[in-house]
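TA notes. Do not distribute before section.
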Amino acid sequence: MSSRITLKDLAKKLNLSPSTISRALADHHSIGEETKKRVREKAEEVGFTPNSIAASFRKKKTKSIGIIVPRIDVHFHSRVISGIEEFAYKTGYNVTIFQSKDSFVREKEITKILQNRMVEGIIVCLSIETQDYEHFKRFKKLGMPLVFYDRVPSSLDANKIIVNDFESAFTATEHLIKNNCKRIAHIAGSQNTDIFKERLKGYTAALKKHHLKIDPDLILPTNNLSYEEGVICANKYLEMESRPDGVFCANDYTAVSVIQVFRKAGINIPKDVAIVGFSNYPISGIIEPNLTTVNDRAFQMGEAAARLLTRQIEDEENYIGSEIITLNTELIVRESSIRKASNK
């Protein structure tokens, strides 16, 4: 595994003294503007910051890891964090958690903070806005172990923990088909994000396999798969002349929205419309009728991410920077999708 860039390394690359480098980065008046600019550009290029003196402590294990999550108030991410913390506690690591709030700008700022902190590795779920990964490439240059989970960078070789989104969505949609649904809708996540692209692909593949029509009007994309967006989508389905008789939702929040809006409109769930969600949030077992959903094994994903990261930190001789681990999911069948035999 490559080591982090030190002040001496930077000085050697620029053929300047370490003291000159230090003063240039501190914007000292004794250093000319041209030299300052050259030093700053090279420092940015190789991933060095003034606080990269952390490199001198590299052999002194801090037993600390950083976590970047989109939102801790989303049950999926809180479960992932629980899995990470559980494994970290058992192995003597401390964790520091940051929220990007699904903002690309905020995510970039967090990476700068973590670069200057004494963490030995980082676990990340990308923000919904992130399409450029340059801010993470710095960590690779620094030799900082990095693991992505769930929303992972498609064009960056890195350690990734994912679930089988395509197969999960295919299974969920096929379950609706086997319960005599012929006109199946899909409330989709942002198509800027690979996991939601894969869920849409799984949905359409199941329809194709069973020779059912793919109606673009029944596929409603959202930005954040929020409860409120689910309400909007459910009302759009209600307004259709030919309503769906099945709905596969890319998460449980939108599925709960559909159940509540449809029931309020006098539609029987699952007799008239069968519903399937994704993630197995606690509310899926509380809502009436109980929601059929995909268990995405969030806690196990957190454990797997922490296990992989600590292995990268501790086993430098066998360091692998681009391992992908795919976790299998399971469909939890409940009342919302089981239609009576008379309706089959």
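Switch to the second chain here.
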Amino acid sequence: MAEHIHSHAPKSGIFNRIDGAWVAFFAILGALAIFAPVDLIPSIKSMLGNLSSTAPFILFAVFLIAFLRATGAEAIVGKAFQGNPVRMVILAAMVGGLAPFCSCEVIPFIAALLAMGTPLAAVMAFWLASPIMDPPMFVITSSALGIDFAIAKTIAGVGMGMFGGFVVMAMSKTALFADPLRNSYKSSCGCGGSDPFNGEVTWAFWTDSARLKTFRDTAIENAAFLFKWLALAYLVEAVMIRFVPAEWIAELLGGEGLQPILLGTLLGAPAYLNGYAAVPLISGLLEQGMSQGAAMSFMIAGSVSCIPAAIAVWALVKPKVFVAYVTFGFIGAFSAGTVWAALNTFS
């Protein structure tokens, strides 16, 4: 359920064509120019320096997204939802962290699974793990927060998927998880294919002109997407470091104990932008004194509860299942933050 850019139907109306990320970007620059002109150039230099150092990772992430889309690798994901229920939950959680789906592409995919009678346990495992990590996000996270943090976040995502999946499996006969699918749903986002199970995988995509065009279009669109959000995030990071006293962050989200981890979990949902923009923001917060545990819980809670991921779940299942999804997400985020904090304490 990665937040990749994708092709939609043309938007109508001037307000629908306005990009909120760029509005925020230039609004921040304008505010700096008016209220703190001496900090404008240093903030821009900091942003450009961070973008430059991250550029190789961004380019690799763009290539990886385009390659997965052009080859049709999404079709492989369907194989995780076949066979023994326990095996399905484990594979669904593991595949969730690697699935090259955008948040709206997952809607018809999951709808088809549920309509075919796939156990909700496997679907829940995939849903929980999917927004937390994917290959491009792993690359970006590793570049800014370190390979250890990226690996730990991936393991946490898979573990949270298994946790949710097995809880649902144990309670599958109860009224809570009976008949989970809404009576009607809409999947009109305009991206993805209509049949996520029978698509052919063509690794040598360059031999097919249509797939080559998909590769080119996806690369261009995702490069623009990543540049936009990372430019905004690095600008916010620069402003935050210059204007937010480090002792504030250290007092609120720093130190040991469960309080900063709990706060990171609770703040993750409302403060989260998207998986890519969150990385440099967390990097800046860590420099200001945020604890490692709070950083991990913030990232995971924000991933699960962010608007694209939440809408994908809400669009398909009844409210009681949605509440269970969010609950699993917050429990998993708090647990992951606690374990990560303990590991950093003993390391």
